[in-house]
UniProtKB/TrEMBL annotation:
<dbReference type="GO" id="GO:0005524">
    <property type="term" value="F:ATP binding"/>
</dbReference>
<feature type="domain" description="Four-carbon acid sugar kinase N-terminal">
    <location>
        <begin position="15"/>
        <end position="249"/>
    </location>
</feature>
<dbReference type="InterPro" id="IPR042213">
    <property type="entry name" value="NBD_C_sf"/>
</dbReference>
<dbReference type="InterPro" id="IPR050259">
    <property type="entry name" value="SDR"/>
</dbReference>
<dbReference type="GO" id="GO:0032787">
    <property type="term" value="P:monocarboxylic acid metabolic process"/>
</dbReference>
<dbReference type="Pfam" id="PF13561">
    <property type="entry name" value="adh_short_C2"/>
</dbReference>
<dbReference type="InterPro" id="IPR036291">
    <property type="entry name" value="NAD(P)-bd_dom_sf"/>
</dbReference>
<dbReference type="InterPro" id="IPR037051">
    <property type="entry name" value="4-carb_acid_sugar_kinase_N_sf"/>
</dbReference>
<dbReference type="Pfam" id="PF07005">
    <property type="entry name" value="SBD_N"/>
</dbReference>
<dbReference type="InterPro" id="IPR002347">
    <property type="entry name" value="SDR_fam"/>
</dbReference>
<dbReference type="InterPro" id="IPR010737">
    <property type="entry name" value="4-carb_acid_sugar_kinase_N"/>
</dbReference>
<protein>
    <submittedName>
        <fullName>NAD(P)-dependent dehydrogenase (Short-subunit alcohol dehydrogenase family)/uncharacterized protein YgbK (DUF1537 family)</fullName>
    </submittedName>
</protein>
<dbReference type="GO" id="GO:0016301">
    <property type="term" value="F:kinase activity"/>
</dbReference>
<comment type="similarity">
    <text>Belongs to the short-chain dehydrogenases/reductases (SDR) family.</text>
</comment>
<dbReference type="InterPro" id="IPR020904">
    <property type="entry name" value="Sc_DH/Rdtase_CS"/>
</dbReference>
Length: 651
């Protein structure tokens, strides 16, 4: 037997997931095998990629599962080209393990056509994953249901009744033939068990197969599938399928001694308070909802049919958030859900409302996912939760985007590269630990601390923990903050107080506590993260803009009073920055408007904010004091501009 093909340096697997939850399944398969993996919620910039240079898996969570072929034609080629440029031996178009798709929506065949044109060569297709209860035999897919029993896909109680892509065919080759004209071959489990898998693969390719499907029934066929793809694929092999593809590669790499045995993954531990949202109509999710409601969670039902009207939906999600916060205040866990299984009358009501309104179903589905994401974001931020549960692919993606703190990660990474020891303090201590883990893995020194910046006792505890670990505080980057976008006349006092307490009072408490230690140490650097919203009026920014404006003046006062102690104090005011939040929240019209008004005609990156922070924390900025550094591409500086050429009309 030939020696196994070695693992090269750099990324081993890059992948694009057709929805968020599917993407996270591929990430999990690699990460739980000890292969560091990063999942982006949108195509990353070169700067963002550079920050994760050591990762062996790089993924992008997409939305192709709910999109038409025309959308795929426009959006998938640049994503696949980006993944190809990373040079990984395997690139994966990740689909659901129940293969739900159709010629008109979520077409797996169209995605394969696009990927094959960019990468070339044949395309392995791996859908089965025994660990997930997905089994393929002679090309037919079987899946376990909520009752633990296996069903042929076209008779599966959930997938045969899927609200968008009901599966009426279990033979994946026949199903896929409706979506692509490529010839499809098969390596079956009998050939694998008899040692003829390689020969059957060669026969299929010699016969003109452009896609080759692999049976997976058990651990043996899973590892054999991984072997065939790894040892007989191209230098940059484009593949398609479920997380079974990553599971197969990991199984073979482990059997071949290329990676160590499965590491033990530490759980996150218990959480005193937790909130849940669900946008799924799966029977499995219905069982989970029923179980949760019977064991202490309080259900809050959303009327998804109201999503056909934007204003009505905003009111509905606002109501749900208020009820969820009230439930938390009573000591219980809120569970906000749009339906409890496919037979819930809410599903039929939503369909009827969509038909009656004339609003495209895709638009309504996007609103539902975004609305549930906003509910969770408000609940997590207001109640300062460290743990949340999300069910449903679109809901997961929206909530993850809204909860992302991308610039903080970038600043901590940049300072760590300069040799600083980092303490990441956050109300979400699990997220802080994940960030410090990456810094330590890259050779830095870092520690995570839980803090509620609006609570003086919590801030004091943060400072005490830092001094106990490192003995001093030399630099503070004051970056805690929450957003808000409510018209002035509609702003509630509780929302005003929440934003002010974190963005302004919290900044004051943290800066004061850290400055007292800097005085004892003979000096230091404080960088407050302000915003252009504190310098100019903007719709919906009554509380947020006021807090950031207050922070700019607070910085000036601090600069005057702390200068005698050798403490530099400055602000950074970011403009439009390409954070994960912006990628989710800014539509094409918003981006076009910003790019027109920004002389550099682009969004900034988190790394450019981090570079500014490194400068203000360095000795090179020793005579920069009480200053606000706008990192905005000239947005604040620009005056009136006219027309496409941005020139004044002739007088």
């Amino acid at each position: 037997m030939n020696a196994p093909r070695p693992l090269p340096e750099g990324p081993l697997v890059t992948f694009y997931g057709d929805d968020f939850t599917g993407s996270s399944a591929s990430m999990e398969a690699l990460a739980f095998a000890g292969l560091e993996t990063v999942l982006f919620l949108a195509p990353p910039t070169p700067e963002r990629l550079a920050a994760f240079a050591g990762c062996r898996g790089i993924g992008i969570a997409g939305v192709a599962r709910s999109r038409a072929p025309a959308w795929m034609d426009a959006n998938l080629p640049p994503v696949f080209s980006l993944l190809k440029s990373l040079g990984a031996p395997v690139t994966h178009y990740k689909v659901c393990s129940t293969f739900d798709s159709a010629p008109h929506v979520g077409s797996i065949g169209r995605a394969i056509d696009i990927g094959a044109a960019i990468f070339g060569g044949w395309v392995p297709l791996v859908v089965g994953d025994a660990g997930m209860g997905r089994f393929q035999a002679f090309g037919h897919l079987f899946a376990n249901a909520a009752d633990g029993r296996g069903h042929r896909l076209d008779r599966h109680p959930t997938m045969s009744r899927h609200p968008v892509t009901p599966m009426d065919e279990a033979d994946l080759a026949l199903h896929l033939a409706k979506q692509t004209e490529k010839r499809i071959g098969l390596v079956d489990f009998v050939a694998m068990k008899r040692g003829r898998a390689h020969a059957q693969l060669a026969e299929a390719l010699a016969g003109g197969a452009e896609i080759v499907s692999f049976d997976v029934l058990d651990a043996e066929t899973l590892a054999e599938t991984g072997r065939l793809i790894w040892e007989h694929g191209g230098a940059q092999q484009f593949t398609a399928g479920s997380q079974g593809l990553e599971s197969a590669l990991v199984a073979y790499w482990r059997n071949a001694g290329l990676i160590p045995a499965r590491p033990v993954a530490a759980g996150p531990g218990a959480a005193a308070r937790i909130a849940c949202v669900s946008g799924s109509v799966s029977p499995v999710t219905a069982g989970q909802i029923t179980h949760a409601l019977a064991h202490g969670f309080s259900g809050i039902r959303l009327d998804a049919a109201r999503a056909v009207d934007e204003n009505a939906w905003a009111n509905e999600t606002g109501r749900a958030a208020e009820e969820a916060l009230a439930v938390l205040g009573e000591g219980h866990g809120p569970l906000v859900y749009s339906a409890c299984g496919p037979d819930d009358t809410a599903v039929a009501s939503l369909r009827a409302a969509v038909v009656a309104s004339g609003v495209p179903a895709e638009t309504v589905n996007d609103r539902i996912g975004a609305g549930l994401g906003r509910v969770l974001e408000r609940v997590v931020r207001t109640a300062r939760l460290s743990r949340a549960v999300i069910s449903g692919g679109d809901t997961s993606g929206n909530a993850a985007s809204l909860l992302g703190i991308d610039a903080l990660t970038a600043i901590s990474q940049a300072l760590s590269r300069e040799g600083a020891t980092i303490v990441i303090a956050d109300v979400n201590v699990d997220g802080a630990r994940a960030s410090t883990g990456k810094l330590v893995a890259a050779g830095g020194h870092a520690m995570a601390v839980a803090v509620d910046v609006a609570d003086p006792a919590s801030v004091a505890g943060m400072v005490e923990a830092t001094l106990g670990a490192y003995g001093r505080i030399d630099i503070l980057v004051n970056n805690a903050g929450v957003g808000g976008n409510t018209p002035f006349l509609d702003t509630k006092l509780e929302d005003w107080n929440r934003i002010i307490s974190i963005n302004l009072t919290g900044a004051f408490l943290v800066a004061q506590a850290c400055a007292r230690e800097m005085v004892k140490g003979g000096g230091g650097k404080i960088v407050n993260i302000a915003s252009l919203s504190g310098q100019r009026g903007g719709n919906g920014r009554a509380a947020y803009g006021s807090a950031k404006a207050g922070l700019e003046l607070l910085t000036k006062v601090m600069a005057v009073e702390l200068a005698p102690y050798g403490i530099n104090v400055n602000n950074i005011a970011p403009g439009a920055i390409e954070t994960e939040m912006a990628k989710f929240a800014h539509d094409a019209a918003t981006r076009a408007a910003y790019n027109y008004l920004i002389p550099m005609t682009r969004y900034g990156t988190p790394e450019e904010i981090a570079d500014a922070a490194v400068f203000l924390c360095s000795d090179e900025s020793r005579y920069v004091h009480g200053h606000t550094l706008n990192v905005d591409g000239g947005f604040r500086t620009a005056g009136l501009m006219f027309g496409a050429d941005k020139v004044a009309p002739p007088v």
